[in-house]
Amino acid sequence: MRNRWGILAILFVVRLTIAFQFQSVAAVAPLLQGSFGVGIADIGILIGLYFTPGIVLALPSGAIGRALGDKPTTILALLLMTAGSLVMATTDIWGWQMAGRLASGAGGVLLTVQLTKMATDWFAGREIATAMAIFVNSWPVGVGISLLVLPSIGTAYGAGAVFLAAGVLTAIGIALIMFYQPPPAVTVGAAASGWPDALALLAVIVAGMIWGLYNIAFAMIFSFGPTLLTERGWSIAAAGSAISVVMWLSVISVPAGGYLADRGKPFVLTIAASLVVAALLAWMSRSDAVITILILGGLVGGLPAGPMMSLAARVLAPETRALGMGVFYTLFYAAMMLGPALAGRLAKSAGTAAAAFDLGALTVLACLPLMLLFERIVSVRERRARS
Fold first, then answer.
1. Cβ burial, residue 2 (10 Å; 0-12/13-18/19+)
2. Residue limits of the Major facilitator superfamily (MFS) profile domain (predicted)?
3. In this predicted model, what pLDDT tens digit does every residue of 105-149 receive, in sequence order?
4. Number of neighbouring beta carbons within 10 Å of residue 205
5. What whole-number percentage of the chain has pLDDT above 70?
6. Which has the closest alpha carbon to 77: 120, 112, 116?
7. What is the 3-state secondary structure (H, E, C) of the chain?
8. Distance from CA of residue 298 to its chain's centroid?
9. pLDDT > 90: what percent of the chain?
């Protein structure tokens, strides 16, 4: 296939398998607690383990992709994800659940970095913002599908069937990626592996922290939302369907945020939307107006995604992009590993999953001074470049 929008469709579907697999634990968390005799803190650790390999693998993932090639690297990543799901589907030992989760996460890291590179190869210099907005939307779509499908599967057939379903989807991804073709060689720029300058590196670090903290907040909704609602008497299936509202609406708000940011003031948009999201998260833990909050969260929560994801690109030249994005993703994965684990412990101490939503509100607020810091660093760097 040589049509770039067809290629993007393939990459979109393959990437959503990561979100679907990530959500497989949170979607049936109450079932896992009952089956394995673990608490909510253990569930938080299991959720966060998916991102743990990213701390080690994010930086070298680009080198692995260059050594093996696009298609072999994605197939390897999907095989790891499939194997991890199969381990989780077939074991009744909690330690093996954690091992399977780590294997899945390792595959997810490789796949995330490689697919991002492949999408950029096809759209660099032409409609890249539109393409990346569509590409990023594969995450909420994958999570939304999992929230609709997996609780019902788990309720009917058990947690093992949920992980088996995730493994089947990643196996389908292997078949689908076989249709991928690289762009014509003339359009693919092989960037050298150079480190960004000091200020650019500092800006990328801050950008990675912003993206990681914001995603912690968003993850609280779909990771601990089902548990919070079941605490209030909702069924597992109903809770999953309700939480999925956020993800489906973010399919609209993510590209809308990118569109508005390209034609307005991205900094103002990001700050305003973040304040609203923080307020909604705090409200969620204290109100029964669940559907209203979830609808507003979906409509507003996706708006900052595009502007935040574009921060690193503002300071990274083509020759520094590989290592710079590795740093960016390393910080993102570190945040996404620690966030759910900390939220699980807080929920255990408080005796309710509502504590996770309060943590999410705080992490969103922490993004605001970091946004100011990022703009300050960029301003100083640009001033030095002119002098």
1. exposed
2. 7-378
3. 999 999 988 888 788 778 765 666 677 778 888 988 898 888 888
4. 20
5. 95
6. 112
7. CCCHHHHHHHHHHHHHHHHHHHHHHHHCHHHHHHHHCCCHHHHHHHHHHCCHHHHHHHHHHHHHHHHHCHHHHHHHHHHHHHHHHHHHHHCCCHHHHHHHHHHHHHHHHHHHHHHHHHHHHHHCCCCHHHHHHHHHCHHHHHHHHHHHHHHHHHHHHCHHHHHHHHHHHHHHHHHHHCCCCCCCHHHCCCCCCCCCCHHHHHHHHHHHHHHHHHHHHHHHHHHHHHHHHHHCCCCHHHHHHHHHHHHHHHHHHHHHHHHHHHHCCHHHHHHHHHHHHHHHHHHHCCCCCHHHHHHHHHHHHCCCHHHHHCCHHHCCCHHHHHHHHHHHHHHHHHHHHHHHHHHHHHHHHHCCCHHHHHHHHHHHHHHHHHHHHHHHHHHHHHHHHHC
8. 15
9. 41
Domain with 365, as residue range(s), is 4-386
End-to-end CA distance of the chain: 48
The number of CA neighbours under 13 Å toward the Cβ of 322 is 17
Q: Is 51 within 8 Å of 336 (Cβ atoms)?
A: yes
Q: How many residues are there in the chain?
A: 387
Q: What CATH number is given to the structural domain containing 62?
A: 1.20.1250.20
Q: Which residue has the tokens 């029964």?
A: 288
Token output for 94: 């909690």
Confidence band for 20, pLDDT divided at 50, 70 and 90: very high
